[in-house]
Amino acid sequence: MKFSLGRSGMKSFIGKRAIASGVSLVGLVVLVFFLSRLTGDPTDLYLPLDASVEMREQFRQMHGFNDPLIVQFGRYVADLVQLDFGHSLRQARPAMEVVLEAFSWTFRLAVITMSCVTVAAIVIGSLAAFRVGGIFDRIATFFSLIGASAPDFWLAIVAIVIFAVNLHWLPTSGTGTALHWILPVSVLFIRPFGLILQVVRGSMINVLSSAYVKTARAKGVRTPRIIFVHGLRNAMLPVITVIGDQAAAILNGAVVVETVFGFPGIGKLMIDSILLRDFAVVLAVIMVSALAIFLMNLLIDLAYALLDPRIRY
Amino acid sequence: MTDTQTLSGRKPGGALARWFSMLWADKFAFFAALFLLLALLCALFGPLLLEAVATKQNLRGRNAPPFDLARGWIYILGADALGRPLLARIVVAAQNTMLVAGAAVLASSLVGGTLGLVAGYSRRSASQWIMRLGDVIMSFPSLLLAVIVLYMLEPSVANIVLVLAVTRIPIYLRTTRAEVLEVRERMFVQAATVMGASHRRIVFRHILPVILPTLVTIATLDFAFVMLAESSLSFLGIGIQAPEITWGLMVSQGRPYLTNAWWLSFWPGLAIILTTLSLNLLSNWMRIALDPTQRWRLEMGGRRNG
Amino acid sequence: MAEHLLEVRGLSVEFHTAAGTVNAVQDVSWHLDRGETLAILGESGSGKSVSASAIMNLIDMPPGRITAGAILFNGRDMLAMDAEERRAINGAKIAMIFQDPLAHLNPVYAVGWQICEMMTTHGTPGAEARRRALDLLERVGIPQPEAAMRKYPFQFSGGQRQRLMIAMALACKPDILIADEPTTALDVTVQAQVLELLKALQQETGMGLLLITHDLGVVAEIADRVVVMNGGSIVETGKAAAVYRNPQHPYTRKLIDAAPGKGAMPEGRERRGEPLVKAVGLHKHYGLFHALKGIDLAIMPGETVAVVGESGSGKSTLARAMLRLDDPDGGEILYRGRDLLAMTPRELFGLRRDLQMVFQDPTQSLNPRMTVFQLISEAWVIHPDILPKARWREKVAELLVKVGLKPDMAGRYPHQFSGGQRQRIAIARALAMEPKLIVCDEAVSALDVSIQAQVIALLDGLRREFGLSYLFIAHDLPVVRDFADRVIVMKAGEIVEEGPVRQIFDAPQHPYTRALLAASLDPDPDIQAARRAARNLEEGRVTA
């Protein structure tokens, strides 16, 4: 962490991280491949109840479910090498195509939500930290705790009842217009906002009692500048970690919120695919999420290095 | 000699009284603790007292609205689609909700904490393998795990606990390891090494007591998180299965009636919020109360300054 | 009465703490004139920094509260000014530097930025601020000022950081500079340079210098007048030399008596027979850094060997290596002829009780969750053959008395004691092992001067009583003068000089030893003045 190794150091750092993540991903894919097969044969889920034994046999034959698991796995790996991620049983399309489509929705959802959360939590949290125990701090702390405590499915339901069913202001589900985004973003906003605000506040309290803030006061620096220039950049390091965790949670699929609002994102795709034993899609989702989260972690490390000159890779 | 005057000694009175007065000093935490005590009592005795009432169907009272005392106080929060009183069902459901969260937190903190101690203290490759294992568990989709367990094993409370406990292990693993890595470099650990203390003694007598408060604080927070996770699973239909009952499942069961009977989902959701909020408040209090250098804030008697 | 540049009148400040309301300072009055250096001298808890914090508006309220008094700057009461007026004075008219420059510089901004900010905050245009910042860096002796502007605090050495703080503080040409323990964290040779710089800058600018310190040597070197504080009150004030020559208050007398380096040096004893511990050719690397470069040393039974060196000399690495806390990469350590480094853990365990250690900071070396009884008796839990359990209580009480504490303190926790008492507990814990050698790693550096003297006296007494040997690590030569039999001077991982204490102090051979001795400050202002004169003469010769 403390060694400044320049560009080649950065490259080898990314390389090492890629290898570690790659090892975990391979382990994960193998584990998921075999464990997911334990959840049963998808045949019954896809064919009508009165399908004949021959039809069932033909379905199994076609999708290779009759072969021993190890053979199926070998075939999967062989396809994977040629970047063929298999077919979706449910949608009869290449699995990767299905996943990338869903991912683009979730990605937009995550970016919009986390941008709002970050700005709001940083501003409110910093101000709360400035007068600890003051009225603003107490109100902010109390509401952030409530936010961090609320189950999102419940918030989603209550929001639908109030804004869609009773007031008819907003649509209940879908993605057609900008209005469709308001409810999912608002509901997803609340928990990360509460958590991140708490972290900003705590980190800022530490920073504001630090020696260099004392120096800034002795220099006669104005208070807003002390908070947002001297304090904030130092206070951001632990905050970034939590922002990353929360963004990862949304990228991994905000299953409940996407389900309730009928949002065609990766979380909804995941739960539907699991329930319908659409194995190729499940595996593709895992790989795409892993890649997205790997890239995001790199981005976070980059942000660390930008914020704190002591951190070099 | 000037250095023989000591700082003021501990005030007389039992440890229990001291903790109580520290709790009283933070009113939010006090009411949070009170609410949790109530929830705990519901969980312990609710099913004994109200099981019969909570499962008795009453088709004439289907979706009865709340705040209507005509049917008796037990219907104060209304009734569900089968006419069962919501208040009684919430009290009864407290047991499973708390049991699942409690057992999962206990199991994951024990396993994760132990692995974290080993990973943090031993310099061998074992610690690397433990960390990689943590990574895999961390990125394994918990939904898939839930479905696998649900399909392979009986849908039972114990299996939900298993799913939740496994997914929460990495949290304790990472925190414990990070803390151990820090504490093992402290001077008093080295002082013990100089005295010839065994590894076991250093881990259990010197390191563990120092990191335990952090773990307890995290476990409190995590209890809230696990409750939410269990509710989400139940809500998605891959958690607790009827006729077993939890608050999350109640929210889910009320969902089809949202448009005409909001209270079916609202009350159990409120119970979840209040419980998790209480746990959050209590863990904030604990962070101060368990830290000897911060504790004075509470011992000063309710004044909140800085 | 003539108007002073800065005058504090009857200032009282209280703080709310765990132990109730504490009067940090009570009815404190002093004044500072242009071109003058006033030192506020006091030990920890004396309230010596409180009036400075009040001047800079750095006291947080709550928990602090100014209950009485006035602070007159050019005749105007600062306590009656509004926040904006006081902010405009901070930095521009009165600037401050602190003890630990690394912590007091913002770690994430370049130092040039931080120095310029001082000026732009008070209205200087950016380009001009930059020019002046470069001049300042040059003036305080930072090499390559252009490049230094873009560097970050962590990329400088301790002494350079304090120079950066000074450059920043002087950026707006303030009337007053407050320096709170400016050299305490620095090596002695660096300390001398920084004090020199402060004095030269004061002569150039004519500013008033307020110096807060615990160190009589610093007062002797730089102060015109001194205010002695104890327990939140001023006990004595006057010209620095007069106060040293003729202290009026018993506390001042005690402080002066406690200053190390004045007593009789121990006679070097004859070194015959087998050494207790002997190190041969010790090497230790940390990555590319060569911390120990072939160290040889021997400690005879009953002997005190002091190892003195500045930061980075490898002295602490040596201490840790001797106890196998960090295994050396090469060489051997012979304890009564057996090589410690070749021992199995089981063999080493048996020897642990003979070799004990007292660490620098007792706050960290005592487990905060154990009582004094548990801390001391842990020795016998680990080595049950030393003492049967039935006698533990009795023996703990005996040891506590031996180190100057009371037996009824056994039930308390470390945080209920003062720093000096905690170090006594740590010593009692080491004694419980009945060791032959105690390694003291900067064991008194964290303590106040008067406590330092007591702890050293205690260690010396114990040596005589039990025939102990000490390996005494210190960064400060005067501390070991009254106490050590032999002195080893280390620099950059090597021993530069070794000999009996008299030889080292009276006839140092190596230039580095001489530099160390020259740089350590004597508490006597007259001696310091004489040394200063000699130094100037020498410099004059060099430049001539």
TrEMBL record, chain C:
Predominant localisation class: membrane
Protein localization: Cell inner membrane
Transcription keyword on record: no
Alphabetized UniProt keyword annotations: ATP-binding, Nucleotide-binding, Transport
Gene3D superfamilies per UniProt: P-loop containing nucleotide triphosphate hydrolases (3.40.50.300)
NCBIfam families hit by this protein: PRK10419.1, PRK11308.1
Protein's recorded name: Peptide ABC transporter ATP-binding protein
Native source species: Shinella yambaruensis
